[in-house]
Amino acid sequence: MGATAFDHPFLSGLVGDEETSAWFTAEADIRAMLHFEAALARAEAIHGVIPEPAAQTICAACAAFSTDLPALRAATARDGVAVPELVRQLRAAIGDASPHVHVGATSQDVIDSSLMLRLKPIAFVLAARLAALELRFAELHQAFGDRPLMGRTRMQAAIPITVADRLRAWHAPLRGYRETLTALRFPLQFGGAAGTLDKLGEKAATVRSSLAQELGLVDIQQWQSQRAVIAEFAGLLTLISGSLGKFGQDVALMAQAGDEIGLTGGGASSAMAHKLNPVAAETLVALARFNATQISAIHHSMVHEQERSGAAWTLEWLVLPQMAISTGAALRLAHELAGNLSRLGSADP
After folding, report:
1. pLDDT at residue 292 in the model
2. Can 136 be counted among the known catalytic residues?
3. Which of 1, 171, 175, 262 satisfies CB 3.0 to 4.6 Å to 343 for a cystine?
4. Which helix (H) or strand (E) holds 342?
5. Helices (DSSP H) in 100-151: which residue ranges?
């Protein structure tokens, strides 16, 4: 039994998204954290912070490492983060090279950089789904765009419009979201204990630059207590799911009217065999409202005390994965719903 609908044994079939969820598993997080540790060793060896043979040993150990998850869980309950125990286990596996593991880094560097390494492919997944949905809307425009439709304002009949006019409202925001996603710069977090990289001295900037290059992340000034990068990503998620919610709401209302739309693939009713419920459309509305609610928590999580906040940071972990998964699910459902539109507007052009 899942703790949330997103990983629930059957509710996840409605609101979950396997491709997005895969980047928030423990395995994906640990893999990204070990990727950070290996890349850090390579970057520090390049600049003479640690010996090259030690870096090679660390990289090999990270590639073959098997985590003791029960110990990691118990340590996280004690320490508030998984990294101290993960580093302890990694050092135990490495042996003589263990003093050269994690040099100059802190837990937040590992966790935040792991997050960026996982949000980056999620952004490409979302962008690809937006492109597919844009293509489907273009197909609907070609098939039905010239047909008449009653325009409605404030839920009341207004003036005649065409299907193209309504499609434009569904389609117009998507390209901008897709372009924003593909242009996002995912930054490395590497600041050490208090954001100053004090243990690396004059080599701090060059090691950070090399580490960013190793990880495929952007080298910017540390951002451990400035969380705008998280809030901006979450805000984009709410925009995407909000626009898809508008699409879902419109389809649900058109299905209620009955003569404005042909919709296949609806959901069955346990009491009324004749019904085909617009489940995907309704779920798009629910996911939009869910994300609109969660963004408040992300904005609260921007309030970090001094150089690092445990409370605000933990709040991000509770909220951001669900927002990303719900947006992935919304795009999946929107494409399914758009594919099930067999007619828009009047049957007679």
Report:
1. 98
2. no
3. 262
4. strand 341-344
5. 107-144
Tokens matching residue 43: 């970057």
In the predicted structure, residue 225 carries a pLDDT above the cut 60? yes
Q: The whole model's pTM is what?
A: 0.93
Distance CA 120, CA 23 (A): 10
pLDDT at 259 (0 to 100): 82
Candidate list 88, 168, 308, 343, residue with the active-site label: 308
Q: Measured between alpha carbons, how far is 107 from 36 in angstroms, rounded to an integer?
A: 11
Mean pLDDT of 254-273: 66
pLDDT attached to residue 273:
38
Task: State the Cα–Cα distance between residues 316 and 312, nearest whole angstrom.
Answer: 7
| CB neighbourhood size of 100 (10 A) | 21
Q: Please say if 326 is a catalytic residue.
A: no
Of 73, 175, 185, 269, the active-site residue reads: 269
Task: Name the strand (E) or helix (H) holding 181.
Answer: helix 163-183
pLDDT of residue 51: 96
The CA distance from 61 to 97, in Å, is 10
Tell me how far apart the alpha carbons of residues 103 and 266 are, in angstroms, rounded to a whole number: 56
What whole-number distance in Å separates Cα of residue 183 and Cα of residue 177?
A: 10
Share of the chain above pLDDT 90, in %: 79
Owner of token pair 């509305």: 285
Contacts of 148 (CB under 8 A, 6+ apart): 160, 161, 162, 163, 345, 346, 349
Q: Within 10 A of 82 (CB to CB), how many other CB atoms are there? A: 22
CB atoms within 10 A of CB 212: 21
